[in-house]
Design brief:
This protein is mainly α and about 270 residues long.
Length: about 270
């Protein structure tokens, strides 16, 4: 039953990826998988690890990135289902090992699906030329369903026939390989955070946030949750402060027009008197 629920989830995530794009990241997908499989803690940890690992993944021009939705679904599900012992480190190591090859294999299916979707371009152009809004709206659904199928089909095959094989493979692996994968799972988030910090350091005004986070963590000994809440407040204030000048620039011309109009009205009133 859980296999069919996870397959349906993969289908919905595929549709979401070509529409709202609200649940396409591993940080959101893996915890949902963890809830379905009854291990939310593992889902959260695996999701955070894969999110940092795939932080810079995205389609650029004609390049199609690895399918992180299918990769996250398969790797998280098999990591949790294939580790009856409940060892979190082993689950994370298994998820990392499976995530990259499954996402790259699923990428090939997405390329085929996108090729099929290109055949609809002529139909869409005819509908647009005829101003057929309703027809254009319905034409957006076939590509969405095909994309959902591209995520659901490999997920179903992997979960239906791969869980037992994954469990057996994990049991047969030497201990030093599992330890090495666990170590890699600990290093990858650090590398991702370092890359993120390199991007932040290129903007001079972001230095103060790095220093603030260091002080809160090292000197005030605050936990992650209060630091996150403080960061949320500062992020909101920073966004407001950087957006305010543009808002004033847009308002000022209107204000001048209003003042000129009011001045003209005063002149007319003086003339009438």
């Amino acid at each position: 039953m859980k296999v069919f629920i996870l397959t349906a989830l993969a289908f919905l995530l595929g549709i979401d990826n070509v529409s709202t794009k609200m649940f396409r990241r591993p940080l959101l997908i893996a915890p949902i998988v963890g809830i379905i499989l009854g291990n939310l803690q593992a889902g959260l940890i695996i999701g955070a690890t894969l999110e940092v690992m795939w932080m810079g993944i995205g389609d650029v021009g004609a390049y199609m990135a690895p399918d992180i939705i299918t990769g996250t679904m398969i790797s998280t599900s098999l990591a949790i289902m294939g580790n009856a012992s409940g060892n979190i480190s082993t689950m994370v190591a298994t998820a990392i090992t499976l995530a990259v090859p499954t996402s790259i294999l699923a990428q090939q299916l997405l390329v085929l699906i996108e090729t099929v979707n290109c055949s609809l371009n002529g139909w869409a152009k005819r509908l647009a030329d005829n101003a057929d809004v309703k027809g254009t709206f319905w034409l957006t659904w076939p590509p969405a369903f095909l994309y959902g199928f591209a995520c659901a089909f490999p997920t179903f095959l992997a979960l239906q026939f791969g869980a037992g094989a994954i469990q057996q493979a994990i049991n047969d692996l030497p201990k030093f390989i599992i330890n090495g994968l666990s170590t890699a799972g600990s290093i990858i988030p650090s590398v991702g955070i370092a890359l993120l910090m390199m991007t932040m350091l290129k903007k001079g005004e972001l230095w103060m946030f790095i220093i603030l986070g260091f002080v809160l963590s090292s000197y005030l000994k605050l936990d992650i949750l209060p630091i996150t809440l403080i960061a949320l407040v500062f992020a909101f204030l920073y966004e407001r402060a950087t957006r305010e000048p543009s808002a004033k620039a847009q308002v000022s011309p209107n204000t001048q027009v209003d003042n000129s109009n009011s001045a003209e009205e005063d002149d007319e009133e003086d003339y009438d008197l």
